[in-house]
Amino acid sequence: MIDHALVKRFRQEVGDRLAHQRRLDAANGLAPMTGEDERQFARALISRVLEEHARNEIGLGRTPPTIEEEEGLAAGIHAALFGVGRLQPLLDDTEIENIDINGCDRVFVSYADGREEIHDPVAESDDELIELIQILAAYSGLSSRPFDTANPQLDLRLPDGSRLSAVMDVTIRPSVSIRRARLGKVFLSDLIGNHTLTPEVGHFLQCAVAARKNIMIAGSTNAGKTTLLRALANEISPTERLITVERALELGLDQFPELHPNVVAFEQRLPNSEGQGEITMAELVRRSLRMNPSRVIVGEVLGDEIVTMLNAMTQGNDGSLSTIHANSSMEVFNRIATYALQAGERLPIEATHMLIAGAIDFVVFIEKRNEYERGGTLRRYVSSVREVTGCDGRVLSSEAFTLGPGGAVPHAPLSCLEELAAHGYHPGSW
């Protein structure tokens, strides 16, 4: 067991010494340490502080920490300085998918195999939990994000790519949900291998991306929409310039320059305490069109940016990708129409359906199911692919792939088959 009170004390001490060294370097005209140099220097400081602590304990006639206890303290201090404190062991576990925290001592962990367990507390108090989230909010993303009574909601991307959502003051105790990014560098072949996609659907999607079709990925929360989006994006040629637009950075396509050397990642900026400085998703989508994009990728559509995005798709930026929450592939069109009604343009439903028909080529629906008959295994799979074929007062579409015994299977003929065939797609060849 780690003495978290000691970790907190030593973190402050090491942090103070680190800050003092930064000031000394600046006063002597030295270049600031790189991130890796700073981590190495911090490790040396941690060793020094722990050695001083051991000598002090011996001087007081007490037993100093064992080697194992010192290693635990060192890891805890380093995680508090550069990681996410007592959350770090959970984020280091590659089998964990979700972490739900209902107050500092009510921690629920969901695993990839469907198991759910209660975990040890992640902070000594709710105030300490809020302080941890505030520290993360100050250093994650492109700009500092407040988390306090005036700003009780927070969304951000952790250093490992996981998504964190937190609220306070609108719940009895602070509540945090962390969605793990277990598959960062993921390809369609990986999703075929874990049975998220059938081989034919995987090949179809590969050809659809190559043919620059606009694809909307739909599904419920935690169904795997973002992972599928990453896999589709990784089918895009490295020669293309990609611009991603997100509420909180999470796609991380710029982290793999060997796949995407030319990426610009936009992140929505929230207003400051005086209500100034906000840059909305819709504004970022408009800005992205002026940045010479080959494709625009909108991480998640949740509001009025939908009209701007659909307009972008119809203005020559073919091959766009996005995700949206929906209960079926057919429901996506009504969901988009609802968002469009909330936009400043106040588009009537008929106009929205015309815009959808001109912008979106395919809707891919992914769902999850906990298969209790197989020991509670959580399974994710693409169950429907719907092709948009036109508009007649409403969006006309056909289900190109529907759920069969072994996954999604061909159902209706594709109207754009010739275009896809030019990129290697031939139905029934799998």
Describe the structure.
The chain has three domains: 1-82, no CATH class; 87-182, Beta-Lactamase (2-Layer Sandwich), CATH 3.30.450.90; 188-423, 3-Layer(aba) Sandwich (Rossmann fold), CATH 3.40.50. Helices cover 36% and strands 23% of the residues. It is built from 13 helices and 15 strands. Strand 4 (153-157) and strand 5 (163-167) form a beta hairpin. Helix 10 (305-313) packs across helix 12 (349-359) and helix 11 (331-342) crosses helix 12 (349-359). The N and C termini lie far apart (54 Å).
Into how many domains do the coordinates divide?
Answer: 3
Q: Indicate the overall shape.
A: elongated
What's the CATH C level of the largest domain?
Alpha Beta
CATH topology of the largest domain: Rossmann fold
> What is the annotated CATH architecture of the largest domain?
3-Layer(aba) Sandwich
Please identify the structural class as seen in this structure.
Answer: alpha/beta
Family: Belongs to the GSP E family.
GO molecular function: ATP hydrolysis activity
Domain Bacterial type II secretion system protein E: 87-348
Protein name: Flp pilus assembly CpaF family ATPase
